[in-house]
Design brief:
Layout lengths: L3 E5 L6 H12 L2 E4 H14 L7 H7 L5 E6 L2 E6 L2 E2 L7 H10 L3 H17 L2 E5 L2 H5 L5 E6 L2 H14 L6 H17 L12 E4 L5 H15 L1
Parallel strand pairs: 1-6, 1-7, 2-6, 7-8
Antiparallel strand pairs: 3-4, 4-5
Helix pairs in contact: 1-9, 2-4, 7-8
């Protein structure tokens, strides 16, 4: 087993940004598990599958092959051989990913891939259930969160920079809905692991969050 850092938390808490920086600083591999669910959700969307129909989603799973690849140290997400790293970042795809992640067959399909990567490499893996379900033996566990308003505002600023004209109130509503879905799903719901360090980034800079997490890593390495 490699040295595993598990970072869990709700949508928009900054998990990916923080995890990438910690992984780079430490020379670890960064694994964005949410991207795997997004890639699967994107494939379902492209195939016209009704993602509210659990049976239809389950039936389509064998038709989708999701993989992670690394180019110059950057994670790339592949769905049936196609690089979909950019396409999966759409808000619509994120909402679908949150929805289908509650289906046990979906989670089973991706679980082995995640565990295999972590067993062979030093990784920083982020998601919703990494410390509680995917990597319960991880040496360092972090629960990264922030207020709903702060998370929504961060997303709002990102979209504005891209030239879009989002509604902050709608983004807040979407985040609250995703939080509810993630925290109330029957299988591996989002929650803080008992042995995880709680980090609230609402009033912290990215550099401060990275330093805090690296401090926890130093304590056990």
């Amino acid at each position: 087993m490699g040295f595993n850092v598990a970072i869990d938390g709700p949508a928009g808490a900054g998990k990916s940004t923080i995890a990438k920086m910690v992984a780079k600083n430490r020379g670890f591999i960064y694994v964005d598990t949410g991207a795997l669910y997004r890639a699967l959700g994107y494939s379902l969307l492209q195939a016209g599958v009704d993602t509210n129909d659990k049976e239809a989603v389950t039936k389509h799973l064998p038709e989708v092959n999701v993989e992670l690849a690394y180019e110059a140290g950057e994670q790339q997400v592949l769905a049936n051989g196609k690089n979909v790293s950019k396409e999966i970042r759409r808000e619509e795809v994120g909402n679908i990913a949150s929805k289908i992640s509650a289906i046990k067959e979906v989670r089973a399909k991706l679980l082995d891939l995640q565990k295999d990567i972590a067993s062979k490499n030093d990784v920083v893996m982020d998601g919703r259930d990494i410390g509680t379900f995917v990597l319960p033996e991880a040496q360092v566990k972090i629960y990264l969160t922030a207020s709903v308003f702060e998370r929504a505002n961060r997303r709002y600023q990102e979209l504005i920079k891209k030239g879009e004209q989002p509604e902050l109130s709608q983004i807040e509503a979407d985040i609250e809905q995703r939080d509810y879905q993630d925290m109330h799903r029957e299988i591996a719901p989002l929650k803080q692991a008992e042995d995880a360090h709680l980090v609230d980034s609402s009033r912290m800079t990215i550099a401060e969050v990275v330093a805090r997490i690296e401090g926890y890593i130093d304590e056990v390495m």
